[in-house]
Amino acid sequence: MFNEEPPEAGDRRYTIVVTGDGEFLVGTCVELGVSAQGGTREGCLENLREAIALFLDDEPIVLPAKVVKALTAAGYHGVNKRGRHIKFRKYGSRPDTLVLPNETRLARHFIDLVCARTGCSPEELQGPGNGTES
Hints:
Number of domains: 2
Oligomer: single chain
Number of strands: 9
CATH architecture of the largest domain: 2-Layer Sandwich
CATH class of the largest domain: Alpha Beta
Order of helices and strands: EEEEHHEEEEHHE
Distance between the termini: 38 Å
Strand content: 25-35%
Shape: elongated
């Protein structure tokens, strides 16, 4: 048994314990109670990443409404949510994809990405509950 660094779990950190039974390795995310198996350490952790993302898919979308409205007005559609991220896609002659963290507050980096794609100013995307984190 040994502890692992958490598998790409957004901005949150989890304790991962990997054990073996002689045939399989089993990885468990202690805080979430999610487990997966694999024939190798790498395979086990890859499967655990997938299991954690599936577990987190049920979390509600909390991305600020002003951000969603700006993207929608610019022709983007929310096409997928996996774990703690949402994928927006714009179709047409200049297709584009943007992946944002599903958080109530976005880091300035993500606000700047949305502004570059929508033509909005950072001030338009901020407001009560829609600030940025430095």
